[in-house]
Amino acid sequence: MIDARLGIGMTSARTRNRLVQRLIEQGIRSEVVLNQIRTVPRHLFVDEALASRAYEDTALPIGLGQTISQPFIVARMTEALLDGFTGESILEIGTGCGYQTAMLAPLVKKIYTVERVPELLKKTRVRLRSLDIYNVQFRPGDGWEGWPKYAPYDGIIVTAAPASIPQKLLDQLAPGGRLIIPVGPKGRQDLTMVTKLADHFEQVSLGAVSFVPLVQGK
Ligand code: SAH
Fold it and tell me: Is 54 helix (H, G, I), strand (E, B) or coil?
């Protein structure tokens, strides 16, 4: 029997390997991350009409005015978040279709994810369950608030861009923890890595990116 999830043609192993090759050329080094790019069935995260483009290194629309992030950016953020990571819990802001969540899920113990569009979250929850991903807890809500209940988090990843880093996310970061977040206005966002050290936050820029805004309020 043919497993529909393995796919054929434009979703084949060859197509996926081509994407992995491209990411290696662009500087992605982590084997676990590249393996996840190869493994996660990105065509199941986009509308069927776009499935043939799922393994292009590009962002795609996913309805409700939102997008699935570009594979290179997902790989870059995952690599930065997990480099030297020894913690357990990750807070993700901006679940969207759950592609980033699915990339991370097998690599960490527990993910807490917050999305402001409930319809999107409902679909994503079903999608991730159908892919046998069970270590994710979902919450409809405003990511500017983080998710205080399970704080502090060993890592926080934000996949929508605020104009400045939300203080509450810094507060919910564990000592030694790392926050990966695009910051800035549309067209001038900077992917930023913040590490919480004993008495200050260290901030490093990882380059220019383009994300939808982290909407403020409900
Ligand atoms: N992580 C996704 C990309 C998400 S796009 C992927 O892997 O493809 C950004 C998401 O952030 C959208 O779903 C949007 O609804 C959500 N978002 C925007 N503002 C938010 C906020 N204040 N709180 C929570 N989610 C927010």
Answer: coil
Q: Does 12 participate in catalysis according to the annotation? A: no
The residue from 52, 69, 164, 205 that is catalytic is 69
Residue list, ligand 1 pocket, CB within 6 Å: 66-69, 74, 93-94, 96-97, 99-100, 114-117, 120, 142-144, 159-160, 212, 214-215
Residue 156's φ and ψ, nearest 5 degrees, are -130, 135
104 in Cβ contact with 112 (< 8 Å): no
Task: Sketch the domain layout of the chain as residue ranges.
Answer: 59-209
Yes or no: is domain 59-209 CATH 3.40.50.150? yes
Tell me the mean pLDDT in the region 39-55: 93
- Cβ-contact 51, 4 below 8 angstroms: no
CB 93 within 8 A of CB 160: yes
DSSP 53: G
Q: Are 190 and 124 in contact (CB under 8 A)?
A: no
The predicted pLDDT at position 65 comes to 76
